[in-house]
Amino acid sequence: MKLLVLAICIGAFGAASAEAQTLQIQGVAGYLSEYELTAEVSASGVEHKEFSGPLTVKHVGVCTHSGPDEMFGQMSIRFLNSSRRVEADLSYGGRECVYTGDLSEAATGFMTCANNLTLPVRLWTKQTP
After folding, report:
1. Are 106 and 118 a contacting pair, CB within 8 Å?
2. Domain assignment of residue 76, given as a range
3. In whole angstroms, how far apart are CA 77 and each of 38, 39, 46, 57, 81?
4. Taking CA 40 as the corner, what is the angle to CA 71 and CA 115, rounded to the nearest 5 degrees?
5. How far apart are the C-alpha atoms of 36 and 121, rounded to whole Å?
6. CA gap 100, 85 in Å, rounded
7. CA distance 26 to 103
8. Residue 12: inside a domain
9. What is the tens place of the pLDDT at every residue in 11-29?
10. For residue range 40-77, what is the model confidence (pLDDT) as tens digits?
11. Does residue 15 belong to any structural domain of this protein?
């Protein structure tokens, strides 16, 4: 009987993890696209409309800047009414920012941070295998 319960638990865990969806988020930020954003986010909501995971923001611009060349943080992203419209919370390098816009390489939106800094952003995704 214990073996049967163990087999059922392992099967249920395997099915749940197989359904977990992971997205690779890529993007650029800044007026000259001087920052590269990457995040690997996993579904955190039952309906796969909410995702969260680690975020890396890397300075790729040719001009010098103050601050580190690479910052790490967290991204939470929620799909709104359509499959492309999202709201994302980005937390990195002591900054708390919010992006609302389309998840598309062609669409530019704006990210607003707590210190009243507003930057143009393009975010897009591809599903990981």
Report:
1. no
2. 22-127
3. 13, 10, 14, 16, 13
4. 40
5. 10
6. 8
7. 10
8. no
9. 444 444 445 688 999 999 9
10. 999 986 677 899 999 999 999 887 777 778 999 999 99
11. no
